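Saturday, quiet lab. Running sequence design on the structure tokens for the scaffold JK sent over.
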């Protein structure tokens, strides 16, 4: 089983992913974590990515697809894709790669939450890219570049929308219900 967790920045994708992999036998693939690891290691990719991430923009599709491809090919487990795909090009690239491996995405969970709650959460988190100006840009980037994926997966009949506000446990219970169905 391959699962995508989709949602605006700060919707709680990373938080729910940590719960999901505990209960379901999936390998966590977070492109945000992978990029932050590159930054921490001071690699050329990390240095380039940091400039983009600090502005709240998206790292290029080529870099992201290159990063995830080897992970997918080298894994024999179902994957939980967290924060990926974020553009139609990434979604099509993922579909193409999985098709070549005779696999497919089984579920897409959309965490639905309003912008004001998101801004409150991210300001409380206080990561380097969590200042108000960057957050507003990330929300705009989400609406322009990532939100079209909602329709992309709805038309494939794979999308389930889950209310993303409430306690972490309550939200996870909603997610688990979808994945267990
Ligand atoms: P990501 O690392 O993917 O993270 P995110 O969208 O900011 O947050 P997430 O939704 O995971 O929220 P979290 O659980 O942490 O992206 C960071 C950047 O990397 C992007 O802006 C982009 O530049 C780049 N990037 C990543 N993937 C890319 C791709 N595929 N293509 C191009 N660029 C890419 O939760 C947020 C906060 O809320 C936390 O503090 C958490 O504790 C809190 N919280 C969570 N659930 C809560 C709840 N139920 N109640 C109260 N607080 C809660």
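Result came back. Writing it out in full:
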């Amino acid at each position: 089983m391959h699962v995508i967790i989709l949602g605006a920045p700060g919707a709680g994708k990373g938080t729910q992913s940590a719960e999901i992999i505990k209960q379901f036998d999936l390998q966590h693939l977070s492109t945000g974590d992978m990029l932050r690891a590159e930054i921490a290691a001071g690699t050329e990719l990390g240095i380039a990515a940091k400039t983009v991430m600090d502005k709240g923009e998206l790292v290029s599709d080529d870099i992201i697809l290159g990063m995830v491809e080897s992970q997918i090919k080298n894994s024999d487990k179902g994957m939980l894709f967290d924060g990926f795909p974020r553009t139609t090009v990434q979604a099509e690239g993922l579909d193409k790669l999985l098709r070549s491996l005779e696999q497919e995405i089984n579920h897409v969970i959309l965490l639905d939450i309003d912008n004001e709650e998101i801004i409150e959460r991210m300001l409380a988190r206080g990561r380097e890219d969590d200042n108000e100006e960057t957050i507003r840009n990330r929300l705009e980037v989400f609406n322009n570049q990532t939100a079209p994926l909602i329709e992309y997966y709805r038309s494939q009949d794979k999308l389930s929308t889950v209310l993303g506000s409430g306690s972490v446990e309550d939200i996870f219970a909603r997610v688990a219900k979808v994945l267990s169905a």
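Notes for JK: The two ends are 13 Å apart (CA to CA). The chain has nine helices and five strands. Ask whether to fix the surface positions before the next round.
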